[in-house]
Amino acid sequence: MHELWSPDYPYRLFFKLLSESGYKGYCNAEIGRASCEPIEFMKYYRGLFLALQNAI
Question: CA dist 14 to 9, 23, 48, 53, Å?
Fold first, then answer.
């Protein structure tokens, strides 16, 4: 996964299909830029990941 904030990829549909298929594996994030606050960035990315799955 990359750029979860981009509207160009249907992440909600992607996560829905993963869930419906019973997928229990991992999803890797491909983050192409460094952050001066990596912990805060990871928290933000986790929140967006959960929101796109309708988990929060």
Answer: 9, 11, 14, 9
- Non-local (6+) Cβ contacts of 7 within 8 A are none
Give domain status of residue 2, yes or no: no
pLDDT on residue 56 = 67
Residue 45: domain span: 11-52
Q: Is residue 31 part of a domain?
A: yes
2-56 pLDDT, tens digit per residue, is 888 888 999 999 999 999 999 999 888 888 778 888 899 889 989 999 999 887 6
Please check whether residue 49 is in contact with residue 21, taking contact to mean a CB–CB distance below 8 angstroms.
Answer: no
Number of structural domains in the chain: 1
The two counts, helices (H) then strands (E), for the chain are: 2, 0
